[in-house]
Amino acid sequence: MIGPIFCFDLGNTRLKCGIMQGGELQEERFFSEETLLPEVEELLKERRPRAAVLSSVIEHPPALESLLQSETRFIRLRCDTPMPVRIVYEKPETLGVDRIALAAGAWEMFPGQHNLVIGTGSAITYNFINKRGEFLGGGISPGIDMRFRALHAFTDKLPLVPAEAHYSFIGYNTRQSILSGVLEGALAEVDGMISLYAARYGNFNALLTGGIWNFLLPALKIRYLQARI
Predict the structure, then answer these.
(1) 145 annotated to a ligand binding site
(2) Can you tell me which residues bind substrate (predicted)?
(3) Is there a contact between 139 and 113 (Cβ–Cβ < 8 Å)?
């Protein structure tokens, strides 16, 4: 059997690897900064991939690339990597490679259609690919954790509150008020942004991905939402 393909996604919140076989995601592995190199080395020995792709928005250890180059057919995702979409952005070199990967994934799923991919990681990103396969750009706003941390860091008395799925819409104390304000605010933002794109482009696919996609999806009311990528 031909070996799998390792797809590494090193973000500000999580370090992970998707193990692909036959075009399907078979498994996900997660790493810490301390265990990244030894665990990747062990994973390479265990699964013997035929290729590896690295999407990284952090300062990862140079030894990681050396390891992947020595053991696999290795591609480091960059703005000039051949892709099925054309990047129409003022300075492509400043565009996060995670956003480029999202654009390519959306086009693979829905070619020839307008696509808005909403990434929900450390930041919430809006990434628009038109029906001609042009990645136009989009928007960036603070993610959920960043909003909680900002309230705590930039005030004297507001506590740092962890996100919870269940909270009171009308906050009956400070903690519940922060939960309601941050979470309902994020939901309203995503709904509103989708509506703005709908007003300009009409029919399109809206796709959610990232750490909190499963929190957002049931609560959003916009009819354009399709799936997770």
Answers:
(1) no
(2) 89, 96-99, 174
(3) no
Domain assignment present for residue 81? The answer is no
Domain identity same for 109 and 187: yes
pTM for this prediction = 0.87
d(CA 71, CA 66): 9
Q: What confidence category does residue 228 fall into, taking pLDDT thresholds of 50, 70 and 90?
A: very low
- Note whether 176 and 114 are same-domain residues: yes
Residue 12 is assigned to a ligand binding site: yes
**Residue 225 φ/ψ, nearest 5 degrees:** -65, 135
| Distance from C-alpha of 97 to C-alpha of 116, rounded to nearest angstrom | 16
For residues 120 and 209, is the Cβ–Cβ distance under 8 A?
A: yes
- For residues 206 and 224, is the Cβ–Cβ distance under 8 A? yes
- 152: domain range? 86-228
Please, are residues 72 and 27 in contact by the beta-carbon 8 Å criterion?
A: no
**Alpha carbon of residue 51 to chain centroid:** 22
Q: Would the annotation count 96 as a binding residue? A: yes
Do 62 and 129 have their domain in common?
A: no
Contacts of residue 228, defined as CB under 8 A and 6 or more positions apart, other chains included, come to: 207, 208, 209, 213, 214, 217
Catalytic residues: 98
What is the tens place of the pLDDT at every residue in 163-175? 888 899 999 999 9
